[in-house]
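Help!! Second protein's tokens look totally different from the first
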Amino acid sequence: MLNTIDAKVLKEAFLSGANRLCNHKTILNDLNVFPVPDGDTGSNMSMTICAAARELLSNDYDKVGGVMSAVASASLRGARGNSGVILSQFFRGMSKRMKECTILDVKDLAESFTEGVNAAYRAVMKPVEGTILSVGRDGAKAGEKALSETADIVQLMEAVILEAQKSLDRTPEILPQLKQAGVVDSGGQGILYLLEGALEYLKTGKIVELTDQSLSMEQTVVRKETEVDIKFSYCTEFIINKNSPAASSNLFRKNIETKGDSMVVIDDGEIIKVHIHTNNPGYVIEQALKLGALTDIKIDNMKYQHDSKVVSVPEKPAEEKEYGFAAVAAGDGLAQLFRDMGCDTVIEGGQTMNPSTDDILSAIEKISAKTIFVLPNNKNIIMAAEQVKGLTDKNVVVIPSRSVPQGMNAKLAFVPTATPEENEKAMSAAIKSIKTGTVTYAVREFPFEGKNMPEGTIIGLDDGKITKTGAEPAVVLKELFASMTDDDSEILSVFYGEDVSSEDAEALGEELEELYPDCDIVMHCGGQPLYYYILSVE
């Protein structure tokens, strides 16, 4: 019988569980039912738990509370994706229960599992059954029940794992998409691998060997400033307070669209928000004055700013400003667009490459501002960004943008003279006023409208839901626009990826102008991987 475990045993049991989970990373990725190339569960969970494992390997502990505290802290900072954040919250709850423990007995362990589940549920705004949460909860309940039957930690773990496996097997009956794909929940399977690896160590005294050496070291990608050819020098932004709410901005758009690029004109009834890169800001302002009075005028010489960054000169400590911005994006073009819009830093990441909480924390710590707005621009990054709030003294506001167009619209809704609370409200509202679509390819076979579509099929997604399929990205994009636009649509934006040539993008833009003569068509080189097109309708 194993009645108690000390810090050394807990540490090695955790490492054994972590290794088993990491060794099955590919299986977990394959369990994802959605066919888009996304931030897969296996990758996110394994990188999250590797952050904790590295912390344990570099230190010794004399109390189990110290071991679990290290796991909770390191996994929180290393958390990637929703599954990684949920896993870190399991550990956080367990750490809270074990805090004062030198050694563990069955009661301590069972109650720590329950605390872990409670913390994980609290961290999720809308918990979904049939996922990692319910698998963890059902396992923890079995552990509490086993307390009346055994004082053996091995037997307790066996009871937890047995019920967790049964719960995992039930997930397809709870979530129709799992049943349709013939798989179990990937997050639930991940936590089961972790428990199984820990139990194997408790039974044999041997740590499961890590076979996937690619996970033994992880580096944060840091974008370097490079020489660029800046065609339009002046980043020009302002707000037009319209003389008449009925005044249209269409003529203004047409008058300035040939005078620059990265143009965004948002007509919000009484005001018009304007952003454009131009060599003639005076002309743009002159045209704007025809519609009303101007406020919040901001004109920056981007060529001067870039040259100042590239030239190696001693840096002076940055003076703290009122507001700062950090955005997440994958692709040089998208990153540059966010910088041009005034973001202080762009964290490289997105689909298949979700930045960790620590990546986001490191980025915002370098921003000298009283309030920092974070634009995750991906639904699988929002939770990791939210965790930053508890790790810094800075006032961090996470705008829950789920796409690049939402993030850009949120940034354009920012008003420098407004309070943080007013800006949060306005920016959060702005992300709801824009429709987002994407065109990519299927990474696995999937059902669609009664048919099984093969891997490699081009798919179009409207707000994350597959609505179009085809053989050519440009054709799918046009079909997607046809279903997303209506009589009120004014601006159609397209961000084309690294696999689309500028010639093809230009030809597509001309086609869209013919198809939508009453709309402004804006084409941007996003340079994003995996996604041929990201598009938006305003």
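Here's the second one for comparison:
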Amino acid sequence: MKIYISTLVALLVAGLFTSAQAPADLILVNGKIWTVNPAQPEAEAAGCRDGRILAVGASAEIRKYAGASTQIIDLEGRRVVPGFNDSHVHFHDGGRGLAGVQLRDARTPEEFRDRIKAFAARIPKGRWITEGNWDHENWTPARLPTRQLIDAVTPDNPVFINRLDGHMCLANSLALKLAGITRETPDPPGGAIVRDERGEPTGVLKDAAMNAVYRAIPPPSEEEIAEALRAAMRYAAENGVTSVQDMSASPEILAVYQQLLARNELTVRVSGHQPLSRWEGLARVGVRAGFGNDKLKIGALKGFADGSLGSTTALFFAPYLDDPKTRGLPSDEMVDESRMLSNVLGADKAGLQIAIHAIGDRANQQILDLFAEVVKRNGARDRRFRIEHAQHLRQEEIKRFAEERVIASMQPYHAIDDGRWAENRIGAERAKGTYAFRSLLDAGAVLAFGSDWFVAPMEPMLGIYGAVTRRTIDGKRPQGWVPEQKISVAEAVRAYTWGSAYASFDEKIKGTIEAGKLADFAVLSDDILTINPVRIDKARVVMTIFDGRVVYRR
């Protein structure tokens, strides 16, 4: 027995030694690697094997890991950062939208109509026209579209196209008919049917009112979902995004993610969020936060407290300046606050992670209060509550994010988009707490950055540019909108990498470039840490490395 044990130990030691001396699969040299690791912020090179980082250091040192079959990439002085982790996307919807009608930059109602007309002419009769991402704030005057604008050009196709924030959609008359919406249909809790002066639906539906039409739309097939996810993955790779936190990962979409994983087609790591209302089904089968592997996992939930600023459904303490009759709308989940509390209490007790969408200052205060009550009842632990967007905050709520360890999952592109028109709705004083990146960091909160794609571009360069400059996309605020909330490039990169990893309990395996972590990198065209920040939006990703292999070259 002693001989056997000695032999076994010798073999194990020999195996470990051999493994330690095995060559790298991939080596990056002659670069400027920003590691986001405070113990070693800068490096020239990194070596990778089996999808993990072997070592980080000087080029001469890392070259020692090369073997006959090692791929060596000369970075030629380019800046490298960890693969970006988008903390808030709607991945399938975004992918599907890439193949749909494109309305985001339609500058007039007439251009909006004509693009829909041209798209309808290319598809079969009876097929739904969805997505679109229109923005009436591009128009002068900024009036909402109506079904009458598009009915004549879509007589044979039901239309249900969303505003870019996803909280308001336009239906044509055919879609309203299929959904059974008439002038007699009441507004549902948490939603609104926009009506004309005669009480007739205009075709615009807000938040929970959209559900009736969604129920009338035929579900996509598995192959259609797969096509959308593949398109989304290509777009992610083009922008250095190697991880996403999918806020709309329904069971049907998760099933296709699993198929792509089994076929080794995934080129992003996915953390899937299910609706908060489904927590009992997950808990019943034993799913907990982080269930899965480093490429696909579930166990997180998403709920809603309110709507959006663009749709005047974000929930505020004070009325909207441009619509004094409303302070916004609670979501259908928050109409009965006791039900929302019950859901969060149960889900948290079951070990699931919870993220809640909150835009308006009142909605953020309500969710912070709700989270505090859950901690009081269920006890302290590392649960990582998240507020998605955390868009409009009063000073008293800002400090609570750090004190109560609530993650602010934010999308900086929204700041330079909304900044064009937000003060028309909420005024300059309330705007001081809008996308309060600087104040949240100074208070000690964790920021996790993302895009909210399909709502905004899934392009981290634009997000970093937005967080650092706050220059609105119309060019009218060159010094930045609410400039006191600017942060540094290094802070923005950290929020897009380590911060997002922390938000999904993944900071031990990704988010920084250091030995032992997953080999995900983004190679940039420009050194965003040293160039004039106003040029960051022109920087591009020239190479994306996922799991130790190149998945994109520009």
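Reply: Different proteins will give different token patterns, so don't panic. Residues 1-19 have pLDDT under 50 and may be disordered.
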